[in-house]
Write a structure and sequence with these properties.
alpha/beta; twelve-stranded parallel beta sheet; two-stranded parallel ribbon; 10 helices
Length: 415
Amino acid sequence: MHAAMKMLLPHIFRARSFVILTDRWAPMHIALDKLSRHAPRAPLLESLILMRCNEFAAFAPDFVPEEYGVEWLLPFGNRTGSPALPRLQQLILSGVHLKWKSLPTLLPQQSQLRHLELTYHCSDVRPNKAELLKLFSVCPRLEELNVRVSLPEDDAEFGQEAAMQDAEPVLLPNLRTLKIGYDDSILAQEFLELFRAPNLNSFVLEDASYAASEVEQEASRLLIHIAHPGGRLDRAQPLFPLLESVEFGNTRASQGAYQIFYSALPRLRTLTLRETPVAAARALRPSSPYAAQQTCPCPLLDTLVVRGFAPCEDPQLTEVLVERTNYGAVFRDIRLEPWYGIPEDDLEEEDRPKVGQSAGEWLGGQPMAAASTASASHPVPRTVDGRSIVGRAGLPPPAPFEFVIGRMSAGPAYR
């Protein structure tokens, strides 16, 4: 990494994209140290991606490796005067922590940042609420926000508590997509108080807590808060009144909480339920035809995707779909994928989908559309020596004037 950074630093000023991918902290620490001490301003840089590709390290109680301690570095922060990254539009920090309170100084007051992703940070290196508020305040053009296993905790520095009590949520009028992967549902609820996104169109909420954790994250209060931020008796609008697409992933909540959430989304058109309890689909049931007042949750909903064996095999699911059709809320696209996430080798022969048949069940005698295989036919882009140049999370191949550093090495898991 020393040699790579020595070669690249003189040319960063003309780069439009800069990517560093490592599986261990040692090479990432070297890169951060070099960028913090010797990197020039990057007036053309539009995308900065720093990834420590080890998601399990985020669930450790303390930062590992311990011998490095918690050192707060700030790439491109060695210059004074004008902002070092005036054109930055995409910032992805996965498993990589920076000097959070100084991060906004790298950007102009009205920055062009449109995509912000903070993922997989262990508890003692996450930004606190005051630091996130300051960062959001310089991102009025933000369009997509992804926070996963990085929600701020109540560890504000001395003197920040009083400031947070009087702080107003930051308005993000251009935010269209919000993805939250929480490891604590209470922290997710507090995180949503930091900003307002009245024009949000797509929302993903997922329980991303450690798979072996014995504590089940119950998200009923979180769903009710989104629908009624001021309480059930408050007449204020929901947090995201214009939502048209929602995806739940392993989100544990009561049927009543799901019903309250759906009732606040009259414009919802696409709903994806991934490994959710059966209550998530049952909450879509309309009122009885004999009820004095006829109601139907999400009457414009026309696309429903249900993934996971338990929700797909729920005997009440068909009843819910039929009752919604009788009400007039007809689905345009229904996809049931009971084998989602199960390796094909683990399926019995009779359970395997037939050739040309989708994984979902037949509904009303009509087979559901099979998934397109067009994307699978495209070869993976590779370099001349055979290495794949498609990065983690579907990152596109490098463009001109883009530096990509990728290193996957053997050794201790956290080192």
